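Researcher: Watch the backbone:
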Amino acid sequence: KSNETGTLRQGLADLIAQTEKLMDKIGFSISKDKVVLTENNYYSNAVCKDETYGDQFTSYYVLCDNDTETFFHSDYSSQAPNEDHYIRIDVGTGNEVQYFDLYYTTRKDGNLCAPTKMAIEGSTNGSAWEILTDITSGLPTTNNTAYTVSEIGNGKAYRYIRMRVYETNTGQKKNGHYYFIVSELGLDKYSYNVKD
């Protein structure tokens, strides 16, 4: 059985090498670029309204300011929504993403409310959502940790991308749903090019 596995691995390695040569020959290339986001690209159904601990929502800028001292805290007040908390990114018309990476950073000054289960979803209109990937393990729970969910997509172009959290490391809920904290949140977009 180990000989068969070795043969299969070698065959796969040869196929990959041949594919890379063919890609070079036809001028096919893949690039990955950061999607430039401002506070106007973000929306959440669960912005924190409680002012008791200084977690209240100020601006979505905290998600794209390259400062891990600032963070987004979803709502733990009595006004929290009765649905999974999420952050939605609107990349705008003409900037739709087919394949992308989603990256975020956990809170710098504590390991509270780090997402442990989440769905990354796409929508063309902001109301009908398709699950692109569902993550149920392996997400970071330590403070100030950057994490990337790589190579998300199904070939369809989406204007809206949503990170919907449905479990956290501390298990704290309001109105039956987990509230979470992230410091940064962004996207990298893949482009596929063939030279003429």
Remarks:
- DSSP finds one helix and 13 strands in the chain.
- The helical segments are 2-26.
- The longest helix spans residues 2-26.
